[in-house]
Structure formats: structure tokens, C-alpha cells
Amino acid sequence: MAERVALESEIIRKCLSRSELQCSFLEYRGYKVVYRRYASLFFIVGTRPDAGAGPGAENNENELGMLEFIHMLVETMDKWAGSICELDIMYQLEQVHFLLDEMVMNGYIVETNKSNILKPIDLMERESRKDEGMFR
């Protein structure tokens, strides 16, 4: 776990230190890292070769596909919360995780339709409002 935290910190420092003129793709310790900055938010996605591929295996993930996934995630979060900001993510982290779970399963992107992604979240929010109204 400590190694993972250290790796994440190193990748974050690398992304933050790069200028806006540099490419949003980088390779670091065998990971392909794609990041995108939206206002003050950085979204970072990293992939590595399949574990079963053996040592020295090539990472065949599509960088443009990962960049498009980041863009779709931000657009979906904008549709859900208005203009997304750090506070929306901090105070509604459970919903953000649920939104990601609707989009990704076992490391694979399974849904990109914003309406399909947001439908279960809207249902949960509607039900929670019903419960609050019942006890007033």
C-alpha cells in the first residue's frame, strides 16, 4: 500500500510539473499516464500491461481513448452537478464513485451514455428526498 501511495504521489508531481505546452501523455515506471486539466481540477488515468502478459510486455492502451474517457467523465459530472468543482467532488464523493462505477467495470469502460450513467444516481437522489420528507 505504501508503494502505491508513493507511486501515485510521484505521478501527480510529474503531471503538475508539466507545462500546458507539453503532451498530456507520459510513461512512468511501465505505466501509461494520461491526464487532463479542467480549470483547477486534474484528472489522471494510468494503465499498465496485463499482469498475465509477463515481464517486459507492451502496454497497448489507446491514449486518445483514455483522454476521451476523461472528457466523457467530466461532461457527465457537469451534467450531474452543473459546473463541476472540487467542492462537488469532496462533499459528494460517494456519488462520484457511484458515477465512476456506472462507467467502468473491472478496468473496462462499459458505459458512455450520459443519460444511462445518471439515471441510477437520479433515482437514488429522488428516493432519498422521499425518505427525508416522510420524517418531517
Structural topology:
Elements: H1 2-17, E1 25-28, E2 31-38, E3 41-47, H2 63-81, H3 86-91, H4 93-103, E4 104-105, E5 108-109, H5 114-134
Antiparallel strand pairs: 1-2, 2-3, 4-5
Short description:
Helices cover 54% and strands 17% of the residues.
Note the overall shape.
globular
Share of β-strand residues: 15-25%
| Low-pLDDT regions | none
Classification by helices and strands: alpha+beta
Overall mean pLDDT: 87
Order of strands, widest sheet: 1-2-3
Number of distinct beta strands = 5
Compute the CA-based radius of gyration. 18 Å
Spatial gap, N to C terminus: 44 Å
Order of helices and strands: HEEEHHHEEH
Helix content: 40-55%
Described by strand count, sense and barrel closure, the largest sheet is: 3 strands, antiparallel
| H/I helix tally | 5
